[in-house]
Specification:
Blueprint (H helix, E strand, L loop, with lengths): L1 H6 L6 H8 L11 H9 L11 H10 L1 H8 L7 H15 L9 H8 L6 H8 L7 H6 L6 H14 L5 H10 L3 H13 L10 H9 L8 H4 L14 H8 L1
Helix pairs in contact: 2-4, 3-6, 5-6, 6-8, 7-8, 10-12, 11-12
């Protein structure tokens, strides 16, 4: 089919394919058979009609119920349904404008704890303008994972308007996991983070494991022959690593 599509001159899309399939014996007259094929046969291991965005979204914008069914399928429905859901995220990412009925579902997953679906939902939200204010709300969520995910996403969006809210959130953050994600996001955005690094405290913590308290395997290491710098000593830095 892909070869025929290339030779066709003006490539057809899934909308045209679905209309043709509906005319075949046992496949019509209702449309949607080809689109179901797209949802069931596109995964990490299979590819079916995985064409350019302009060849995908016109068909699904006319039959959004197929995408909604795939996204709301039970999480325990099995391998094929998981692949169907992930293909639905992929189809949504081709749309130039996200239909409003999908917003709640996508935002919940995009800031959730599913490591497989989360990046797909975030990709499907790429076309949504002014995402930053909504993501910033995640920094105030009661769940650690949401705060960390929101920080990571902000760092990848490269929108420097997030710097100030991130700094304000770090000052209140109790979770080391979320705090680390926020610090990394600030670094990705090119912001200074020295104000959040208590170097004296880090040095004291490092020196608790000084050579006199080291395991015997390190007792003979020539720490004192290594140069010292203005910041923590090489000895302290090595101890932090090991």
């Amino acid at each position: 089919m892909d070869d025929y599509r290339v030779k066709f001159g003006k490539p057809f899309g899934s909308r045209e394919l679905d209309a043709i399939v509906a005319t075949l014996p046992g496949c019509g007259p209702e449309p949607g058979r080809a689109l179901q094929g797209y949802l069931y046969r596109n995964s990490y291991w299979n590819s079916f009609c995985d064409w350019e965005p302009d060849a995908i979204w016109p068909a699904f914008i006319e039959q959004p119920q197929l995408l909604m069914e795939a996204l709301t399928e039970s999480r325990d429905s099995g391998y094929y349904f998981i692949g169907r859901r992930q293909a639905a995220y992929k189809a949504l990412s081709t749309l130039p404008q996200l239909p409003p009925q999908f917003a709640t579902i996508l935002w919940e997953v995009a800031l959730g704890d599913s490591k497989t679906d989360r990046p797909l939902a975030q990709e499907a939200l790429q076309a949504v303008p002014d995402k930053v204010p909504t993501i910033l709300k995640g920094l105030k969520d009661g769940r650690q994972v949401v705060r960390a995910v929101a920080a990571d996403w902000l760092g990848r969006l490269a929108d420097r308007s997030a710097i100030k809210p991130l700094k304000e959130s770090i000052k209140k953050e109790k979770s080391e996991v979320a705090k680390a994600a926020m610090l990394q996001a600030l670094e990705n955005l090119g912001a200074e983070i020295d104000e959040f690094l208590d170097r004296e405290k880090l040095l004291k913590e490092a020196e608790k494991g000084s050579p006199k308290n080291c395991p015997r395997v390190w007792s003979g290491f020539p720490w004192r022959t290594y140069p010292r710098f203005a910041g923590p000593t090489v000895e302290s830095q090595c101890l932090l690593i090991f």
